[in-house]
Amino acid sequence: MRNSLPKKTLLGLSALLMASAAVPAMAQDEAASEESASSITISGSAAVTSDYRFRGVAQSGGDFAIQGSIGASHESGFYVGTWGSSINFAGGTEIDVYGGWSKEVASGLTVDVGMTYYIYPDAGVATGPTDFFEPYAKISTTIGPVEGVFGVAYAWGGQSALADESNVYVSGDLSTAIPGTPLTATAHLGYSDGDSFLSTLQGTDNNYLDWSVGLDYAITDKLTFGVKYTDTDDAPAQKDFTDSSILATLSVSF
């Protein structure tokens, strides 16, 4: 018979072989984990504004509002995030949770589709249903020095906060850097059409235009101060609701 190795030696060799096999496996797992982490980008922002206007309509009653956001995006184009602001109704807080997919589908052309869930967590029972979903789609492109974003959002009827009413919002935004300066000029035009509270201002036609023009000053690559003039075609305009206003916003991104 051939001489056999002692049992302790065999056990020791087996353990060594198992450990040797585990080392590259662990290294691969760590590399995969690092690669997965590097494919995800976390970003956020914080801001204070002299008046929070949503589609031309004041949400903070002409008073200052504090806002913030945080989001995560994957290299595949999928993203999720949340944005919040102080308001002067429905308990004083709005939180928007959103998710979607954004990708450059052709040179200089980016498509963005997703959905926003508007939440008013402090709204009392007396306020009634407040939360609702709104899908959206956007197309972004660059024409020379001008960047443009064109979008549509649709809040369908049947949701508890909207009853049987619905609303469509179409918008266009343009921006361009002013050469030789830290300034960026912006312009916005939006049209709201529907029967829900999202488009009801004055009268009974339940549709309106809103627009704004402004300048953003890049104090640093993370800190921005912006000023813009905003207005709607609501007549007669209501003070601190739909009247024309000059807004100032200081924001930081990270």
From TrEMBL:
Residues 1-27 form the signal peptide. Keywords: Signal. InterPro entries: CHP02001. It holds the Pfam family Gcw_chp. This is TorF family putative porin. It comes from Sphingorhabdus arenilitoris.
